[in-house]
């Protein structure tokens, strides 16, 4: 289960799920989080855009361009907002969209540029992927288990397998 929605987090605490994969939440002392993967944010631009010649970019360089932005419903909205606040830039939001792959589609059609998580799907799209040089940021994904939840042998084996083979520091 990918734990991104509030209802999945609530179901987890009600012991509906044994293990979830999610982003880490602060103030969850009853949950043991083990980092298993990380994901960087990147800028994407149409291939014919003035920024498409860049291999890396300071987010301040996005200021003059319309942006395809995450909607308020997305967990990533707050993250991207914080990055722009950190560099004291108010993005020109042209469209707000829930899903990163839909954002990439809008960018590929020339509606603007965007800050999105890197995903291999971007390689098949008509966009230029640009690394962010500043500000620095990465998102970690975690395997989470309730500290007080009893794991069945098969769940414990899976938990141990993921921890051993995919756990990152």
From TrEMBL:
Q: Where is the signal peptide?
A: none
Instruction: Tell me which InterPro entries the record gives.
Output: LysR_subst-bd
An example of a Gene Ontology BP annotation on this entry? regulation of DNA-templated transcription
On whether Transcription is a keyword of this UniProt record, the answer is: yes
Residue ranges constituting the LysR substrate-binding domain according to the UniProt record: 12-164
Organism of origin is Mediterraneibacter gnavus (Ruminococcus gnavus)
Which keywords does the record carry?
Answer: Transcription, Transcription regulation
| The organism's place on the tree of life at top rank | Bacteria
Q: Name one Pfam family in it.
A: LysR_substrate
Query: What's a single GO MF annotation on this record?
Result: transcription cis-regulatory region binding
Protein name stated in the entry = LysR family transcriptional regulator
* Family under the similarity heading: Belongs to the LysR transcriptional regulatory family.
Q: Read off the SUPFAM superfamilies from this record.
A: Periplasmic binding protein-like II
